[in-house]
Amino acid sequence: MSLKIRAELCDGCGNCLERCPFGALEIKGGLATVLETCTSCGACVRVCPHKAIELIRQPRKAAPVKIQDYRGVWVFIEQHEGRIDQVALELLSEGRKLADERGAELAGVLLGSGVEALTAECFAYGADKVYLADAPLYEHYRTDAYTDVLVQLIRRYKPEIILYGATNNGRDFAARIAVRVNTGLTADCTGLSIDPETGLLRQTRPAFGGNVMATILCPNHRPQMATVRPKVMKTAAPDPERSGEIIRFTGRLSEEQIGTRVLDIVRGAVSGVNLQDAEIIVSGGRGLGGPEHYHLIEELAEALGGVAGASRAAVDAGWVPQYRQVGQTGKTVAPRLYVACGISGAIQHLAGMNTSEIIVAVNNDPAAPIFNIATFGLVGDLHTILPLLTQKIRALKQSGPAEKKVGA
Amino acid sequence: MRIVVCVKQVPDTTEVKIDPVKNTLIRDGVPSIVNPFDECAVEAALRFREEHGGRVTALSMGPPQAETALRKCLAMGADAAVLISDRAFAGADTLATSFALARAVAKIGADLIFCGKMAIDGDTAQVGPGIAEHLSLTQVTNVQKIKEVHADHLLVERVCDGGYELVRAKTPALLAVEKTVGEPRYPSVRGSVLAQQTEITKWSAADIEAPEEKIGLNGSPTQVMQIFTPETQLHSEMLEAPSEDALCDLLIGKLRQAEIL
Amino acid sequence: MLMPQGIIFLLLAALAAGIFIRALRHKWRILTLGAPENRFDQPGRRLKNFAALILMQGKMVREFYGVIHLFIFWGFIFILLGEIPLLLEGIFPNFTVPLLGDNPYFYLIKDVLSLLVTVGLFVGIIRRWVMRPRRLYRTAEAALVVALVLAVIVSDWLIGAAKLALAGGVLPAFRLTVVYPLLVPLFAGLSPDGIAVFQSTMWWLHVLVFLGFFVYIPNSKHLHVLAAPLNGYFASLTPPGAQIKPLDPLAAAGKEYGVGRIENFTWKQLLDSFACGECGRCLEVCPANLSGKPLNPKQMICRTLKEHLLEKGEVMRRHDLSSTEDLSPEKLSALLREDPEAAVLGKSLLGDVFSEDALWACTTCGACQEVCPVSNEHVGKIIDMRRFAVMNEDRYAPELRLAFRNVESKFNPWGVSWSERAAWAKQLDVPLWKDAGEVEYLFWVGCAGSFDNSAKRVSEAVVRLLQAAGVRFAILGREEKCCGDFIRRAGNEYLFRLMAQENVALLNRYGVRKIVTACPHCLNTLKNEYPDLGGRFEVIHHTQLLWQLVKEGRLKLRPPETTAPARRIAVHDSCYLGRCQNEYEAPRALLSMIPGTQILEMERRKDRSFCCGAGGARMWLEEHLGERINLMRVRQALETEPTTIGVNCPYCLTMMEDGVKDLAPDRGVEVADPAVLLAQLL
Question: ipTM of this predicted complex?
Fold first, then answer.
C-alpha cells in the first residue's frame, strides 16, 4: 500500500511536484520519484496528465457495504433547552441543496425530551422527514445514548449523507458513530458539494492550521459523514407552510448502560478578567496618555462584550494593574478580535497577541509598527475614535440582534 | 491507576508557510512539536498521577522521528513511552489511526486515557472518540477540569456553549481535554536529561496485532481528492475615511463582515 | 645571651604564632572544602597580575582613598620590616639587624610611610565615621583595627624617640628620620634610667599590641591582608565575558547542577570571601543595588556567603564531612540530635542563605568585578546559583520559562515565527550564506536585530554601510538561532548548549571564519563562549568593523547637503562591548564623524558605565522591585542635555528608548546606534 509511479507512463513533466503539499516527490532521471516524506495523501494522483501515479491499496474482497442501498441526506438537529442551534438550520439549508442534487429526501434527526414542537422548524427549513427520539433519556446530550440512536437509525434507514454541526457535541459523537458503522468522517468542513461525475460528496476543509484546503471523499463506505463548521453555510429563509413526516424512534440503551450523566449545567461562569479565554480584547498602551483615559478602553471592551487589556508600557507606567498585561512577559492571548489602542507594537507586545484572528489598531502615528500586523488599521486620535466607536457599537447591539438572526 | 496519554507529533502549523510561486506548503525545516492540546493532556495526566497515584504511559503513532515528541512527554514526567511505527500505518485517516492506537492502548492496559481535544495539523477531534469506541469505553470530550475521582467514576467539567456541564463518567474512560485543563509544564532540565536516557518501547503493526486491512491507507474510508491553497486570507488594510465618524462606521462594517459583531 | 625578658617575649611570640597558625589552618580546612579549580597555570601572567593589582594596587589607585590605601599597604610592609630590628634589638640590645637596623634609608622610608599611614588613618576615620558613606560598614571591628594600627605606629615612634634620646639625640641609623627627632624633646628632664624604663615599657606595650594585631588578623576582615594577595595571583586570566564555567548537563546527570550548597563553590570562589576588604566599591557601581533591589554584591561576598561558609564549614569539619550532597535526611536528623548546630548543614544557598530576589536582580553587567581591587568574581557565583535554581530546583520566574520555551520552539525569545527571521532583509538584497558563494564576513543578526523594530533598523543600516564599503558578506537567515547569551546567564546550561551546539555545527559546516554582529551579547557568546563547544571564530562588533573600514578609506560618507542641526550625543557604553570587549573608541569615533556632532560624556562612562538593566536575562524578567534601571540610566544621560543618546547594543536601544518615552516624551531625544546615523550619510 503506497504511491507507485508507473515508469512507462511518466514523462517527468513535474505537474505532480507542484501539487504535492509535502514536497515528497522529485524528478530523478526524467522520472517522478516518491520520497520518504510521502503520506499517501493522493493529491498528486489526479493531476497527472498521463495517469502514471497510482495509490496501491490492498485488494478488497468485496465492497464493505452495498453503497447503492444508501439514499437520502440527514442532518443532526442539535438543540439546547428546546431551541434549535443555528448551525442545524444552516445545515438543513445546505442539506436541502445536496438532497435536491442527489434527487433524494432531506431528513432531520432530532433527539431530546419534549422537543416534538421543534419538528415544525425543521420542516420550515427544508426537511422532508424528521426522525424523532423524544424521551427523558435524551434530555441532555450524552455520547452513548445519542450514538446508539444514530447508529440504530443508520442501520435501519441507510442514509447516504449525514451532516453534523462541528460543535462540541457534534464532534463528540460523530466520530464514534463513524467507527461503529465503519465509515469515513470529515471534520470541520467549510464547503460541501456533489461531484458531478461520481455523485460523491466533496467535503472541503482547512488543514495545516488553515494554510491549505483539502477536499475529501469517502467513496466506498456509507454513509458519507461530515461535521460542518458553524456560521459557514448560509441559512435559507424558512417556509412556515412546509410540513413533513415524523418518524418516532427509541434507542436500545437504558439509563444503566449509559456511561455518563449530566449532573448540572453551569452557564455564564466566565470570570471578569480572563484575558486568555476572552474572545475579544481591547488593549491600551502608552498612547492613552494617562491612567485617567483607561476607562475608554474598558468601555469599548464592555460594549464589545470583551475584556480590557494593556501593554507593558501602560502597566509599567502604573496606569493599569499588571494582571491586565498582554505581551511577552504578560499574558499570551489569541482572541477572535484584538483592538490595540495607542500601542505602537513593540515586539514584546506583538509576541503576546500576534495570533489573534482579527487585529484592529488605533494609533495616531501612521508609521507605528502595529499597523504591519493589523488586519484593520485606523490612524487617528484614540481619544475621539474610541468613544465614538463605543457609542456606535452600543447602539448597534441594542437594535441589532433581530436583524442578524434571519441572516442572508 | 494505569494512565495512557495519547500524543501526536505535528509540524508547528504556525510555521508552515505557502510558497507564493509554487503554491505548495513550505515544510522544509519546520520544527516538529508535540501537538499543543496533547501537551495539555500530558499535563492533565501528570496532575492526576500527582494527586491520585498511578503510572503514566505516553503513546504515539508516527514515523521513527516521533520519538522526539515522546521524549518531551518523558521530560515532562511521563513514566514510560510507547511509539507505534510501521510503514503500514502510512496514509491512515482518523478511523485507521484510532484503530491502531486502540490496539496499542489495549496492549499497554489502561484505566484512564487522556487525549488532547484535537491536533493542530488536522483539527479533526475524531481520534479520541474513535479510540474510546474501539475499546467500548466511556468518553468525555472538551474536559476542562477533573473535579472528583471515585472508585468507579469521575466527576468532570465538560465545556459547553456559554459554560460547562458537570458530568459523572464511569471509569474506565477516555477524556479529551481542553487547553484550560492546565498550562503544560515546561520540562525541568533534570527531566529533559532523564528523558534522553530513557528507553522508548517501539511496536510495529504486527506487535499490536493490527490486521493490514484495518490500518493505514487500507483501513481509511476517506481519501484526499485534492489539496489547494485557500484564496481568501485577511491582509493588512488601512481604513481611510473623511471623518472619524465615517472611520468608525467603516470599521464596524468590516467587523460585521467578519461576523464579530 | 638571652635575658629573661627575651624568654618571656619568645613565649608570647610562640603563643601568638600558635594562635595565628591555628586560625589559618582552620581557614585552610574550610577553604579546601571547596571544589577543585585550576588556577595554577601561566605563572608568568599571574605574577604580572600580582604586581599590577597588589604591589601597584592598580584598581585601588583610581580614586583618592585608594591612593591612601597604597600608602597604607606599603606602610604596612615597612612597618612589618621595621618590627624585625625593633623586636630583635629589644631582646638582644647589642644586636643590629643587617640591612635594616643600621640603614638610614630604610628608616627614612618607614618614617615617611608611617606618617602617611597615620594621616591616612585619620582621613579614613573621618570618612568612615564622619562622612559615613553607604559603602562602608561602621563596625567595632573596623574601629579596633584602626586603633591597633595607630597603637603600633605611635608606640614605635615613642620607642625610637626614646632610643634616640638615650643616644644623646644622634643615631646614624635615624639620621634621616623626621618623627623620632621631633619627639625627643618629650624626654627632656627625664633621667636616662627613666627613659630606659619608659622605652622598655613602651616596647612591651608595642609587643602586646603587635602580637595582638597579628593574632587578630586571621579572624577579622583583615584576613584580606593575607588572602587578597593570593586572590591577586589567582585572579581569573580569562576576559570577563568568558568566565562562565562550562557544564554538560548530560555528562553530569547524577550530580547536583550549579551551586546550591556553599562547598560546591570552588576554593577560589570561597577565597573571594576572605580576600574581600569590605571597601564597597562594588556597591557603588551595582545597578541592581543602586536601583533599590535586594542584591548587595558586597554583602553577598563578605557577609552572606562568608558567614555561612564559616558556620557550615566549621560544622562540616567537626563531623568530618567533605560534602553534604549525599547527606540523607535521616543522617541529618541523627546529627542534629547530638549537635544542634548541624542544622546549618540542611540549609540551601537558594532561599535559606541567599535571597532569590537578589539572585535574579543581577544584570551581569560586570561593574562590580571591574572595580574590585582584590579581583573577586561576583557574577560567576550568581550564575552558579542561578544554575542551581533553574536546572536543579526548577525554580524560576514564569516569564523566563516562557522565554526558554520560545527559544526552544521558535529559536528566539519572543516566540516570533521562526520562518520570519530574515523578513527584515527582504528589500535589501542580502545573500543567504548557503547561496552566497565567496564571502568574507558572516553578518550575525541576532534575535533583536531580526525581530525588534528599532534593532531591525540597525541591521538595515549595517547592511547598507557594508554594501557601500564593498564588503562581501552574507547572513544565515532562517538558519540562525538564538546564540544563547541570556539563557546561559539565566542558568539554563542545558538549553544554552542545545542552541550553541546547533549554531556551532552550522557555522563550522559552512566554514565561517569571520563574523560581524551588531549585538554585543551575541558577540561575547560567539567569541568567548563558543570555543568551548568547538566553534572558533573571529568575531567583531559592527562599530569596530565600520571604524576599521573608515580608517582604511573603504567607507566613504558624503556630508549632508543642508547643514545639519547640531547634534549633542550622549554616549552610553554597553556592558558587553565595553567591559567585556574593552571597546570604547569605535562607537565614539563613528559618532564623531556625523557633522555638527558634539560628544557628551556621562559621569558613569566607559569601564564605569551604568547598565541599561537588560543584561543577564533581565530583558526577559519583569522588574518588580526598586526603581527601573533604564530610567536611572536615561536620567543620567538627560543630565548632559543631549539631542541623541548613542547606544551600541540592541538591549540598550530598547531600554533607553523605553526610558526616554517615559521620562522625556516631549524632548525629542533620539536613541540611536552609530550605524543608523551614518547610513543617513550614504
Answer: 0.89
